[in-house]
Design brief:
Blueprint: H1 2-33, H2 47-50, H3 58-71, H4 77-87, H5 95-103, H6 109-122, H7 129-141, H8 161-164, E1 168-170, E2 178-181, H9 184-188, H10 193-206, E3 210-213, H11 221-226, H12 229-246, E4 250-253, H13 256-264, H14 269-272, E5 274-277, H15 278-287, E6 301-303, H16 317-327, E7 331-332, H17 361-371, E8 376-379, H18 382-394, E9 402-405, H19 406-413
Parallel strand pairs: 1-3, 2-3, 2-4, 4-5, 6-7, 6-8, 8-9
The structure holds iron/sulfur cluster (2 copies).
């Protein structure tokens, strides 16, 4: 009997999987048929600058390549590698969608690209090699960096005791007002420790009732963005359960990638919790008079919009408001800002893969900042921070410009 039940379960699972694949294909076909082929979206795609080899694809071309692979039943080993390279080059910056909305039919281009990646993963033609290792680690360690889950909170030992002792590490069932979600990159990358130090210092100074999870897990962005939907869904469910147990009224994220997922991809999570990026929370506290700078940030600073905060979620002003208050006239804008901001190259799963670029987007961004006389590029995303710092090194500009997180700028003047 048990064997029959198992067999039935397997058949149901297979039917469900096939249905999901067919739904994905229908969705891609339906959306691409609404594309006018006007190519307005090409104007805002950073790939046209950085990956010339794939340039002819552009946003609508990427959609077209997966559409025709489905229509011609050509999702095969013969063309899988080129299709994979095209689809996985996208940084999911959102520029094309904004342009399509403003000038054409408003197509959800990133959904099509992610669905195409899901089809490739299903046929075992995707993702890119480095991304496969990240997925393996996600499965085993619940982080994409190959680090042990039990070491996730070790960063706290690197922070001065007067700061770390005020951090509430939540045990099961413990309630707080705000949950601070640290994220894998901040937790495991020691070079980002000063960002954590700055954020905690500011949180402590506000006297907010906040805590962090004792057993935090990845938000699932590396899985979702490369098309591994089942793994993403597992992480989403585990996270949601842990969030519910805190009874928090709000979740504050450090990474715009966690923010984007909690806000847009965790079903109705945002109906239960206020989802905030830390820049939104701090900007609000400044408005309320709870964070008053004691001095002016005295270097010329510009702001690089993280795509998952700006173009993907229209959070443009809170980070700027913090910089305007802290730096005053020392805050300058780059030519490409807000909706027209250039991506750093790290989104869409590309932090885990080598995508050939010439020039690198991060280097272009550093040059953009130097062009307006900036001594500091401030950003508000751990991946942008890493990308830009590499951009400074690779473009030979060490000593001419520094990269800082907005929390570091703010902590310096409080
Ligand atoms: S702007 Fe929209 S409609 Fe025009 S080519 Fe791009 S995706 Fe298609
Ligand atoms: S999301 Fe960004 S990188 Fe991807 S196709 Fe659109 S504009 Fe290009």
């Amino acid at each position: 009997m048990r064997a029959i039940a198992k067999k039935i379960e397997e058949v149901i699972e297979k039917v469900d999987e096939e249905r999901e694949i067919n739904d994905l294909k229908d969705m891609i076909i339906d959306i691409f048929r609404r594309c006018r082929n006007c190519n307005y979206c090409y104007i805002d795609c950073p790939l046209l600058v950085s990956t010339r080899g794939l340039a002819s694809q552009g946003p609508s071309g990427m959609m077209g390549s997966i559409y025709y692979a489905i229509r011609w039943d050509a999702l095969s080993a013969d063309n899988a590698e080129s299709l994979r390279d095209i689809l996985y080059s996208c940084t999911a910056c959102g520029g094309c969608e904004i342009r399509c909305k403003q000038s054409a039919t408003g197509l959800p281009i990133i959904d099509v690209i992610e669905a195409g990646r899901q089809l490739l993963v299903d046929r075992m033609f995707g993702p890119l090699p480095g991304q496969s290792s990240a997925l393996k680690s996600l499965l085993i360690n619940e982080n994409p960096y190959g680090m042990l889950a039990e070491d996730r909170i070790k960063w706290l030992n690197e922070i001065e005791e007067d700061i770390s002792q005020k951090v509430n590490i939540l045990s099961k069932g413990q309630k707080i007002e705000y949950l601070l979600f640290i994220g894998c990159t901040s937790a495991y990358n020691h070079e980002l420790i000063n960002i954590l130090r700055s954020i905690l210092t500011i949180m402590n100074s506000l006297g907010v009732d906040y805590g962090i999870l004792g057993e935090e897990k990845c938000c699932g962005d590396p899985a979702k963005s490369v098309g591994e939907s089942a793994l993403f869904e597992d992480l989403r469910d585990l996270n949601r359960k842990a969030f519910m147990e805190t009874g928090a009224k709000g979740i504050i994220t450090i990474s715009p990638h966690c923010y984007n997922l909690f806000k847009n991809e965790f079903d109705n999570l945002k109906d239960t919790f206020e989802i905030l990026h830390y820049t939104e929370f701090f900007a609000h506290q400044m408005d309320q008079g709870n964070l008053i700078p004691k001095k002016n940030f005295n270097k010329i600073v510009t702001y690089h919009d993280p795509c998952y905060l700006g173009k993907r979620n229209s959070v443009y002003e809170p980070p700027r408001n913090i910089l305007k208050v802290t730096a005053g006239d020392n805050f300058v804008e780059m030519r490409q800002n807000r909706e027209s901001s250039l991506c750093c190259g790290g989104g869409g799963g590309r932090m885990f893969a080598e995508v050939e670029e010439n020039p690198r987007l991060s280097e272009i961004r550093v040059r953009d900042a130097l062009e307006v006389g900036a001594q500091v590029i401030a950003t508000a995303c751990p991946w942008c921070y890493i990308q830009l710092r590499d951009g400074v090194k690779n473009s030979g500009n060490v000593g001419k410009i520094e990269v800082k997180d907005i929390s570091e700028v703010l902590a310096e003047v409080l």
